[in-house]
Design a protein that fits this description.
The complex is a heterodimer of chains A (109) and B (115).
Chain A (H helix, E strand, L loop, with lengths): L2 E3 L3 E5 L4 E8 L6 E6 L6 E6 L3 E5 L2 E6 L4 E6 L8 E8 L5 E3 L3 E6 L1
Parallel strand pairs in A: 2-11
Antiparallel strand pairs in A: 1-3, 3-8, 4-5, 4-9, 6-7, 7-8, 9-10, 9-11
Chain B lengths: L4 E3 L2 E4 L5 E6 L6 E7 L6 E7 L2 E5 L7 E4 L6 E5 L8 E8 L9 E2 L3 E5 L1
Classes of the chains: A mainly beta (109), B mainly beta (115).
Chain lengths: 109, 115
């Protein structure tokens, strides 16, 4: 079966660092993607990992361990505008994305 | 910057009516997808389309659903006889390829409300 788990919600303070975890069990794997989604809007691409290790992209970094079926998204220097839902998604062999439930992040002043 | 565009942004329809949701994928992309997101729930895959045919579809994509690429630019999702439970945001996405190192770009979505 396909299962992607991430926390439902998290709260963090402006300027801080937050780590959003994602674990997955899927029948195929062709990369792990992180998307940001503001309420009522489309998911926007943040990062992806295909190989194990850390990928850094400005204030956002994403880590992958394929053997553990685990990834995290790290957001540094949090800003109020980072309040959104963060979606973990696995791309399978056929190319489709399988999404987790999303983590609702609230950034407080 | 190239983007996926969807029309309309919001559609209200009566139960039992047919709706067509339209998408213009990014021009050099070859793989096209429809996803939906019921309010408060996760994004779910509906169907993928490549080389003018469906390459994969989910259990949600039953006989009431169909997709078409009527010309070189549009990609449509038709729901033949809408049900209340079809109310959701429908997202179109496209990608250059289906494998690694290729991200899917999402359109802004069509909010479908069935009354």
């Amino acid at each position: 079966g396909q299962n992607i788990d991430q926390p439902t919600e998290m709260t963090a303070t402006e300027g801080a660092i937050v780590q959003i975890n994602c674990t997955y069990q899927t029948s195929g794997f062709n990369g792990l993607f992180w998307y940001q989604q503001h309420a009522g809007e489309a998911p926007t691409f943040l990062s992806y990992n295909v190989l194990d290790g850390l990928e850094e992209k400005g204030r956002f970094s994403s880590f992958l361990s394929r053997s553990k079926g685990y990834s995290y998204l790290l957001l540094k220097e949090l800003q109020m505008k980072d309040s959104a839902s963060y979606l973990c998604a696995v791309r399978d062999q056929g190319g489709k994305l399988i999404f987790g439930q999303g983590t609702e992040l609230s950034v407080k002043p | 910057e190239p983007e996926v565009t969807q029309t309309p942004s919001h559609q209200v329809t009566q139960m039992g009516q047919e709706v067509i949701l339209r998408c213009v994928p990014i021009s050099n992309h070859l793989y096209f997808y429809w996803y939906r997101q019921i309010l408060g729930q996760k994004v779910e895959f509906l169907v993928s389309f490549y080389n003018n045919e469906i390459s994969e579809k989910s259990e949600i994509f039953d006989d009431q659903f169909s997709v078409e690429r009527p010309d070189g630019s549009n990609f449509t999702l038709k729901i033949r006889s809408t049900k209340l439970e079809d109310s959701a945001m429908y997202f179109c996405a496209s990608s250059e390829a289906s494998g690694v190192n290729t991200e899917a770009f999402f359109g802004q979505g069509t909010r479908l409300t069935v009354v």
